[in-house]
# Entry
Amino acid sequence: MEQFRKTLEKRNNRNYAVIIFAVAANIFYFPRMSENPVYHFVTGMLAGLIPVLIVMTLKNRRVMKDDARLREMHIKENDERLLMIKQKAGSAFLPISAIGLGAAATVSLYFDQTIFFTLLGAMIFMALVKIILRLYYTRKL
# Structure
């Protein structure tokens, strides 16, 4: 259980770093780019990401304080059936490609809005495919 507790602590530290980045970007960087409406979109995405990460971090902290909840979460995360569903649905590839597309979309903001919206559409399409595959394999397995 201590190994899983360390894993949760690493997740919390990553969440803290992303929260700090998102807050700093929203406060210092993106308001200066107000002439382009796409920057408002990115600001909104980051503003939406902040509460999600805060809730995830608080949930992890609460679980880390209670051994019964920690054990329950560990079992849930290591459930062989759910791992098989994730494997069949290609869930391991999605975060890597989503981060890559997100970074490319952010860079494309400086060049062309069409490229940005194309990359955004690709990210939404990938998310929809993941949801559909997860639902399919959840019912099949």
